[in-house]
Prior knowledge:
The chain is α+β, with helices and mostly antiparallel strands. The protein contains eight helices and four strands; from the N terminus they run ααβαααβαβαβα.
Amino acid sequence: MVDSAPPTGHRTVELRPMTVPTHEAEDRARSFHALMDRRRTVRDYSTRPIPDGVLEWAVRTAATAPSGAHVQPWRFVVITDPARKRRLREAAEAEEREFYTHRASAEWLAALAPIGTDWRKPFLEDAPAVIVVFEVHKGPDSPRPYYTKESVGIAVGLLLATLHQAGLATLTHTPSPMRFLNEVCDRPAEERAAYVIPVGYPAEHARVPDLHRKELDDVLVRL
Protein backbone atom coordinates (compact mmCIF):
# COMPACT_ATOMS: atom_id res chain seq x y z
CA MET A 1 0.00 0.00 0.00
CA VAL A 2 1.30 3.49 -0.86
CA ASP A 3 1.37 5.91 2.05
CA SER A 4 0.15 9.45 1.73
CA ALA A 5 2.90 11.94 0.98
CA PRO A 6 4.77 13.03 4.14
CA PRO A 7 5.47 16.71 4.85
CA THR A 8 8.70 16.57 2.84
CA GLY A 9 6.74 15.86 -0.34
CA HIS A 10 8.16 12.44 -1.23
CA ARG A 11 6.08 9.29 -1.18
CA THR A 12 7.02 6.09 0.61
CA VAL A 13 5.97 2.45 0.67
CA GLU A 14 6.41 -0.10 3.42
CA LEU A 15 9.75 -1.91 3.35
CA ARG A 16 9.59 -5.64 2.69
CA PRO A 17 12.99 -6.81 3.96
CA MET A 18 14.41 -10.23 3.25
CA THR A 19 14.47 -12.05 6.58
CA VAL A 20 17.43 -14.37 7.18
CA PRO A 21 17.74 -16.27 10.46
CA THR A 22 20.77 -15.01 12.37
CA HIS A 23 22.35 -18.45 12.54
CA GLU A 24 22.18 -18.75 8.71
CA ALA A 25 23.63 -15.34 7.82
CA GLU A 26 27.30 -16.29 7.77
CA ASP A 27 26.65 -19.56 5.96
CA ARG A 28 24.74 -17.73 3.25
CA ALA A 29 27.52 -15.16 2.86
CA ARG A 30 30.11 -17.95 2.71
CA SER A 31 28.11 -19.88 0.12
CA PHE A 32 27.76 -16.83 -2.10
CA HIS A 33 31.49 -16.17 -1.80
CA ALA A 34 32.23 -19.77 -2.82
CA LEU A 35 30.05 -19.28 -5.90
CA MET A 36 31.55 -15.94 -6.90
CA ASP A 37 35.12 -17.03 -6.17
CA ARG A 38 34.82 -19.36 -9.16
CA ARG A 39 33.96 -16.47 -11.48
CA ARG A 40 36.74 -15.80 -13.97
CA THR A 41 37.07 -13.53 -16.96
CA VAL A 42 36.78 -15.76 -20.05
CA ARG A 43 38.07 -15.04 -23.55
CA ASP A 44 37.28 -18.35 -25.27
CA TYR A 45 33.60 -19.03 -25.93
CA SER A 46 31.52 -21.95 -27.12
CA THR A 47 28.85 -21.58 -29.81
CA ARG A 48 26.34 -23.19 -27.40
CA PRO A 49 23.25 -20.95 -27.32
CA ILE A 50 22.22 -19.05 -24.22
CA PRO A 51 18.92 -20.35 -22.78
CA ASP A 52 15.89 -18.16 -23.43
CA GLY A 53 15.14 -15.58 -20.78
CA VAL A 54 18.52 -15.59 -19.04
CA LEU A 55 19.78 -12.32 -20.50
CA GLU A 56 16.48 -10.60 -19.82
CA TRP A 57 16.48 -11.68 -16.17
CA ALA A 58 20.11 -10.65 -15.81
CA VAL A 59 19.32 -7.17 -17.11
CA ARG A 60 16.27 -6.97 -14.85
CA THR A 61 18.51 -7.79 -11.90
CA ALA A 62 21.14 -5.26 -12.96
CA ALA A 63 18.41 -2.62 -13.14
CA THR A 64 17.61 -3.15 -9.44
CA ALA A 65 20.88 -1.39 -8.57
CA PRO A 66 20.75 1.82 -6.53
CA SER A 67 21.44 5.00 -8.49
CA GLY A 68 21.98 8.66 -7.73
CA ALA A 69 18.58 10.34 -7.23
CA HIS A 70 17.06 7.10 -8.60
CA VAL A 71 17.57 8.35 -12.16
CA GLN A 72 18.68 4.84 -13.28
CA PRO A 73 21.18 6.13 -15.85
CA TRP A 74 21.84 2.90 -17.74
CA ARG A 75 21.02 1.24 -21.02
CA PHE A 76 21.84 -2.40 -21.85
CA VAL A 77 22.19 -3.16 -25.56
CA VAL A 78 22.19 -6.91 -26.26
CA ILE A 79 23.83 -7.84 -29.57
CA THR A 80 23.29 -11.32 -31.00
CA ASP A 81 23.22 -10.56 -34.74
CA PRO A 82 26.42 -12.00 -36.31
CA ALA A 83 26.86 -9.10 -38.72
CA ARG A 84 26.53 -6.57 -35.92
CA LYS A 85 29.01 -8.50 -33.77
CA ARG A 86 31.48 -8.50 -36.65
CA ARG A 87 31.14 -4.71 -36.99
CA LEU A 88 31.71 -4.41 -33.27
CA ARG A 89 34.82 -6.57 -33.36
CA GLU A 90 36.33 -4.78 -36.35
CA ALA A 91 35.79 -1.35 -34.80
CA ALA A 92 37.05 -2.44 -31.37
CA GLU A 93 40.17 -4.07 -32.81
CA ALA A 94 41.00 -0.90 -34.72
CA GLU A 95 41.00 1.06 -31.45
CA GLU A 96 42.83 -1.68 -29.57
CA ARG A 97 45.54 -1.95 -32.22
CA GLU A 98 46.18 1.76 -31.80
CA PHE A 99 46.24 1.37 -28.02
CA TYR A 100 48.72 -1.51 -27.95
CA THR A 101 51.03 -0.01 -30.57
CA HIS A 102 50.94 3.72 -29.74
CA ARG A 103 48.78 4.91 -26.84
CA ALA A 104 49.62 2.54 -23.98
CA SER A 105 52.59 3.35 -21.78
CA ALA A 106 55.34 0.78 -21.16
CA GLU A 107 54.13 0.54 -17.55
CA TRP A 108 50.57 -0.22 -18.65
CA LEU A 109 51.70 -2.87 -21.14
CA ALA A 110 53.85 -4.48 -18.44
CA ALA A 111 50.82 -4.64 -16.13
CA LEU A 112 48.83 -6.39 -18.89
CA ALA A 113 51.58 -8.88 -19.74
CA PRO A 114 50.61 -11.53 -17.12
CA ILE A 115 47.08 -11.59 -18.53
CA GLY A 116 48.32 -12.21 -22.07
CA THR A 117 46.03 -9.79 -23.90
CA ASP A 118 46.69 -7.99 -27.19
CA TRP A 119 44.65 -6.06 -29.77
CA ARG A 120 42.91 -9.16 -31.08
CA LYS A 121 39.36 -9.54 -29.68
CA PRO A 122 37.79 -12.66 -31.27
CA PHE A 123 35.48 -13.09 -28.26
CA LEU A 124 33.43 -10.13 -29.50
CA GLU A 125 32.38 -12.30 -32.43
CA ASP A 126 32.59 -15.79 -30.92
CA ALA A 127 30.39 -15.22 -27.86
CA PRO A 128 26.70 -15.79 -28.66
CA ALA A 129 25.79 -12.44 -27.12
CA VAL A 130 27.53 -9.18 -26.32
CA ILE A 131 26.00 -6.69 -23.89
CA VAL A 132 27.10 -3.10 -24.39
CA VAL A 133 26.34 -1.04 -21.30
CA PHE A 134 25.79 2.67 -21.79
CA GLU A 135 25.69 5.50 -19.28
CA VAL A 136 22.69 7.72 -20.01
CA HIS A 137 23.55 11.40 -19.64
CA LYS A 138 21.25 14.41 -19.87
CA GLY A 139 19.51 14.67 -23.21
CA PRO A 140 16.22 15.69 -24.84
CA ASP A 141 14.37 12.74 -23.29
CA SER A 142 16.56 11.95 -20.28
CA PRO A 143 16.99 13.85 -17.00
CA ARG A 144 20.33 14.88 -15.57
CA PRO A 145 21.93 11.85 -13.84
CA TYR A 146 23.93 11.94 -10.62
CA TYR A 147 26.85 9.67 -9.71
CA THR A 148 26.52 8.09 -13.13
CA LYS A 149 29.69 6.00 -13.20
CA GLU A 150 29.12 4.74 -9.67
CA SER A 151 25.50 3.81 -10.42
CA VAL A 152 26.32 2.00 -13.67
CA GLY A 153 29.27 0.24 -12.05
CA ILE A 154 27.03 -1.22 -9.33
CA ALA A 155 24.52 -2.33 -11.97
CA VAL A 156 27.24 -4.09 -13.95
CA GLY A 157 28.40 -5.90 -10.82
CA LEU A 158 24.89 -7.27 -10.35
CA LEU A 159 24.75 -8.20 -14.04
CA LEU A 160 27.99 -10.20 -13.85
CA ALA A 161 26.91 -11.95 -10.64
CA THR A 162 23.56 -12.96 -12.13
CA LEU A 163 25.10 -14.31 -15.33
CA HIS A 164 27.65 -16.29 -13.30
CA GLN A 165 24.83 -17.65 -11.13
CA ALA A 166 23.19 -18.87 -14.36
CA GLY A 167 26.35 -20.75 -15.36
CA LEU A 168 27.49 -18.28 -18.02
CA ALA A 169 30.92 -16.76 -18.53
CA THR A 170 31.59 -13.07 -19.10
CA LEU A 171 34.35 -10.59 -19.80
CA THR A 172 34.45 -6.85 -19.13
CA HIS A 173 36.02 -5.21 -22.17
CA THR A 174 36.67 -1.46 -22.17
CA PRO A 175 38.12 -0.27 -25.48
CA SER A 176 39.26 3.34 -25.45
CA PRO A 177 37.90 5.56 -26.84
CA MET A 178 34.39 4.09 -27.02
CA ARG A 179 32.45 6.59 -29.11
CA PHE A 180 32.38 4.15 -32.05
CA LEU A 181 29.92 2.07 -30.04
CA ASN A 182 27.17 4.67 -30.47
CA GLU A 183 27.26 4.06 -34.21
CA VAL A 184 27.56 0.28 -33.93
CA CYS A 185 24.65 0.13 -31.47
CA ASP A 186 22.53 2.93 -33.01
CA ARG A 187 22.48 4.92 -29.76
CA PRO A 188 22.00 8.71 -29.35
CA ALA A 189 24.78 11.09 -28.34
CA GLU A 190 23.62 11.41 -24.71
CA GLU A 191 24.42 7.74 -24.17
CA ARG A 192 28.09 6.92 -23.56
CA ALA A 193 29.40 3.38 -23.67
CA ALA A 194 31.03 2.17 -20.46
CA TYR A 195 31.40 -1.62 -20.78
CA VAL A 196 31.39 -4.24 -23.51
CA ILE A 197 30.49 -7.64 -22.02
CA PRO A 198 30.65 -10.85 -24.09
CA VAL A 199 28.37 -13.54 -22.61
CA GLY A 200 28.21 -17.28 -23.22
CA TYR A 201 29.42 -20.69 -22.18
CA PRO A 202 33.18 -21.23 -22.04
CA ALA A 203 34.71 -23.13 -24.94
CA GLU A 204 35.68 -26.72 -24.22
CA HIS A 205 39.09 -26.80 -22.54
CA ALA A 206 39.08 -23.00 -22.18
CA ARG A 207 42.02 -21.71 -20.15
CA VAL A 208 42.41 -18.57 -18.04
CA PRO A 209 45.48 -16.76 -16.66
CA ASP A 210 46.95 -18.15 -13.44
CA LEU A 211 45.97 -15.20 -11.27
CA HIS A 212 45.41 -14.97 -7.51
CA ARG A 213 43.17 -12.65 -5.54
CA LYS A 214 44.44 -10.60 -2.63
CA GLU A 215 43.99 -12.01 0.86
CA LEU A 216 41.27 -10.58 3.10
CA ASP A 217 43.82 -8.76 5.29
CA ASP A 218 45.05 -6.91 2.20
CA VAL A 219 41.62 -5.51 1.31
CA LEU A 220 39.73 -5.24 4.62
CA VAL A 221 40.39 -2.46 7.14
CA ARG A 222 38.60 -2.55 10.49
CA LEU A 223 38.36 0.69 12.49
